[in-house]
Amino acid sequence: MKHSALFLLSFLLLVSCKPKQTVTKVDPMLLDTVIVDSDQYVQFETTKGTFVIQLFRETPLHRHNMAIHAKYGKYDGQLFFGVEKKFKIQCGDLNSRGAAPGVALGVNEKNDTIPGEINVSRFYHKRGAVGQASLRQVELSTSQQFYIITGRTSTPSDLKRYEEKMNKRFHKSVKDSLTKPYSKQILEYRQKKYNNKISVLNDKLNKMADSVISSRGGKFSYSAEQIEEYGNIGGAANLDGYYTVFGQVVEGMDVVDEICNSRVDKNLRPTPDVKIIKATLLESYK
User: Are strands 244-251 and 49-55 parallel, antiparallel or unpaired?
Assistant: First the structure.
């Protein structure tokens, strides 16, 4: 996958610029990292042990964001938080280094974001999945906070319920985008209480949304493989469609489990603290 120079510049500005902060200087090697068409790997050495994450080339914005953070030491010294047994561990609070005991972490949202790269058909919240937290809306991920799923199993009826929620939300999103050109007309109908005309227009917009969704492959449904994996191995299917999954733990899942099983305080922060000692962008993996 080749990207234009304009895309590269826009991306680098996106992940490097922060309000009232100095723009990170980008070295030539980083540009090579951005355009390479391959999976990448980041090793996390923690106080509980070491694990390795594979970053998917099909989610380039999130992959490069983590690669940049690892390359420049952004994760080093950070504490884990948001730790919930049979669910997930989380990290990515720049202010967590040396935080006093009992202080809530993960609340310092930044304005720097990444466009969502959600593709539930390919990348979903199975056990070991790596995802990025979002900023109140699925279209944008925070560039800071990521999580790793340990999870629990889901029944077929659970998955059917999650499918319905995803499809309903997707339909609304498409319909909302189609409604914008009719906003003045809808306002006029409401002011004049033309309820019948509003109903007719609403039906029209619903059909238009259905047509758009059909042209994009139709409604989402879990594959047989996903149903089997969620049923036998587990994960967090309830997060599908809300957050971008961009990687997978390929080594050291036992370490992730150990972190997840830590005793935590009322803020879901491990006690004693569990820390990232060093994150390393690997030149190669096996």
Answer: antiparallel
